[in-house]
Amino acid sequence: MVSHKKFTIATVGSHSALQILKGAKDEGFKTIAICLKGREKPYKSYNVADEIITIDSYKDLMDVQPYLLKKNAIFIPHASLIEYLGLEKVEKFQIPYYGNKKILKYESDRRIERKWLRKAGLKVPKIFENPKDIDRPVIVKFHGAKGGKGYFLAKTERDFKQKMKPHHGDGDYVIQEYIVGVPMFIHYFHSPLNNELEVMGFDKRYESNVDSLGRISARDQIALPKVDPSYVIVGNVPIVVRESFLPKIFEMGENVVKESRGMTTRGLWGPFCLETIMTPEQEIIVFEISARIVAGTNPYVDGSPYTALRYKEPMSTGRRIAREIKQAIKKNQLKKILG
Ligand code: ATP
């Protein structure tokens, strides 16, 4: 039997790399962090990487491949990899890749993603194809995971046109119904080895400036020159949900996985996240899916209140990935989890 100790877990030094690498070490793997020049410090200081490879630009990742292959590396993707390298290059990546690459194009295209969520029976915000039809508050989102930069709220066509002016020439956006409620990001993990879905935890994002607008009274907001809400992510805050929501939350995740199998032969597996708003009517509206580890799992390096229920040891999502790889190696089923 091949020992998992012969393998190395590699990831890009950013996003959720600290917990991915720590989790891999806890499971007995060797680890490599690939860092942009000048960004090595956290990976050294927290001692999560057995080796640090420094590159000048994310494009250079492609050149590191022969070395990673020699090291028997398995690559763990996260949002930074996809954002900086681009979908096409990720698809061409030669290193054994944890997760299904084919699913990436479904989550990166808002229209396809929406179809997927609806087919899974989830509630999604209404989309306005034509600004003329705006009849309620909307959030206007520009393409690309830019941390909500440039998003704006509007309530009429006129308001929309006015706020679009600085975005002249940028046609790649979506006008989405603005859901009033509280954001809740649900972290799931699906294992194709035992065909089981786990709920790993929840978070909400801490976004600038929207999360501090409540600290400025309405009177002062009006007096200030310009306070449009923005959604630039700064960090993540843990949440524990009302226990009575859990059956629904499991069902939602299971339906998303089931539906993904109709889109690509092997569907979705590993960590994923449903980004939702919970309304006062207790409806869960899903505005996005991330088909990979999300940074919202970072508060749980030592496990979440939910993983504490299931596991005897601290189980972060990063460690859960490593454990899955370890089990797949043991069962000689690595092919089932690489994509
Ligand atoms: P990504 O998750 O790919 O990083 P992003 O950060 O660019 O995406 P979104 O996650 O789509 O952008 O939205 C940013 C923030 O805007 C969310 O955290 C949430 O607070 C708010 N938001 C998004 N869509 C809606 C909606 N339909 N109604 C109310 N608030 C929303």
Task: Give an overview of the whole structure.
- With 339 residues, the protein is α/β, with parallel strands linked by helices.
- Among the domains are: 1-97, Rossmann fold; 127-177, Dna Ligase, domain 1 (2-Layer Sandwich), CATH 3.30.1490.
- Helix content is 31%, strand content 24%.
- It has helices spanning 17-26, 41-45, 61-70, 79-85, 87-92, 104-108, 110-119, 157-164, 218-223, 246-260, 307-310, 317-330, 334-337; strands spanning 8-12, 30-36, 51-55, 73-75, 138-142, 152-154, 173-177, 182-191, 196-209, 231-239, 270-278, 284-290.
- α1 crosses α12.
- The longest helix has 15 residues, at 246-260.
Q: Which short descriptors sum up this protein?
A:
alpha/beta; Rossmann fold; Dna Ligase, domain 1; five-stranded antiparallel sheet; 13 helices; 24% strand; binds adenosine-5'-triphosphate
Task: Write a brief structural summary.
The chain is of the alpha/beta class and 339 residues long. The protein has helices spanning 17-26, 41-45, 61-70, 79-85, 87-92, 104-108, 110-119, 157-164, 218-223, 246-260, 307-310, 317-330, 334-337; strands spanning 8-12, 30-36, 51-55, 73-75, 138-142, 152-154, 173-177, 182-191, 196-209, 231-239, 270-278, 284-290. The strands form three sheets. A five-stranded antiparallel sheet has the order 10-9-8-11-12. A four-stranded parallel sheet has the order 3-2-1-4. The chain has a three-stranded antiparallel sheet with strand order 6-5-7, covered by helices on one side.
Question: What is the topological layout?
Answer:
Blueprint: E1 8-12, H1 17-26, E2 30-36, H2 41-45, E3 51-55, H3 61-70, E4 73-75, H4 79-85, H5 87-92, H6 104-108, H7 110-119, E5 138-142, E6 152-154, H8 157-164, E7 173-177, E8 182-191, E9 196-209, H9 218-223, E10 231-239, H10 246-260, E11 270-278, E12 284-290, H11 307-310, H12 317-330, H13 334-337
Parallel strand pairs: 1-2, 1-4, 2-3
Antiparallel strand pairs: 5-6, 5-7, 8-9, 8-11, 9-10, 11-12
Helix pairs in contact: 1-12
The structure holds adenosine-5'-triphosphate (ATP).
